[in-house]
Amino acid sequence: MRREIGPLRALANGIACLGILGMAGFGAVQVAGKNWQVQETYRLRAEFETVGGLEPGGRVFVQGVDAGVVESIEPPGEPGGPVSLVLRIDARLRPLIRTDARARIVSQGVVGAKVVELSPGSPDAEVLPDGGLVTSEPPVELADLMREATEALDRIDAAAEAAERGLSEINAIASAIRGGEGTIGRLLTDDEPVDRLVSLTDRGERTLTDLQDNLNALKNTWPISRYFSRRGYDDRELALYRPEATRHALMLAETDLFEPGRAVLTEAGRGRLDEVARWAKEHLSTRTEVVVAAYSDDSLDAQLAERLTQQQAEAVRSYLVGSHRIDSAGWFRSRTVAAVGFGRHRPRVPSVEPQGIGPERRVEIILFTPQV
To answer: Domain named OmpA-like: which ranges (predicted)?
Structure first.
């Protein structure tokens, strides 16, 4: 005998069935949304040498935001070729991912699942189009990190052992020195060698002082003194310091006299020196001494600047002496005409231009006439 279902029971069963179907539909929509099946998406590609265990369905993140899934993984077409990933990305994030974006495979946590992380790129770059290729970075594997950490610890252990051996050797040497062993130990424990060393040093200093005095005397002894007289100076600083004399000076730029970077007078330079000679003869007396000083700037090496300026000063001196007899002070008398190259050195004595006006690479002709 069949039992009939009442209207209320049938209504309740229908409502229950509709509720179950609604829950199932809601769950299906949620699952589809989680797998980016219902949202508007677009696709990008990325190629890696190895994917390190990443599987289809793996999550894709942009700046930590869940942005899509790994739709498929395509194996390489030949041995050693790249593994290609197809990424399905939320279309709302498309303006963030630029042509210089970078993709890398990372782990969520220490032992978590593999995911793809996208760095968006710079704001100035263009938006990466649908199907575009994202530049990839090699994945960082935990095993590689552990291996590198182990190698670093091994190197630290080796360095610690070497340091320990070195300290042991230093302690042994220090003990031997304290015991008076070896040359250093005897020097530290016996005063006699130290006294002899101090005495020898004192004698050496006295010998060097005597030698300097003898050399200074020799410089003023004929015929050696004539060499220094021809050069016109013993100390280039003192060549410009004449507190007892009046001073007349002219300054000429290097470019007015010489070929570029050389000690060779140009035709125009000889003409300028002819004018200098006429000017000098207006101020010369029998007691006047002449100094030709040449200077360079810091663009030249110090040693090269010394050589160049000395030769330039001597070239000017030779022309003034040879062409205008500026070294003649009368019958059977001559005056000193000094040629001094200062290189990059700036003398303590004020230059022709006390305000610092004028080129660094220059030649100065200075006349000193003693007044006492």
So the answer is: 245-371
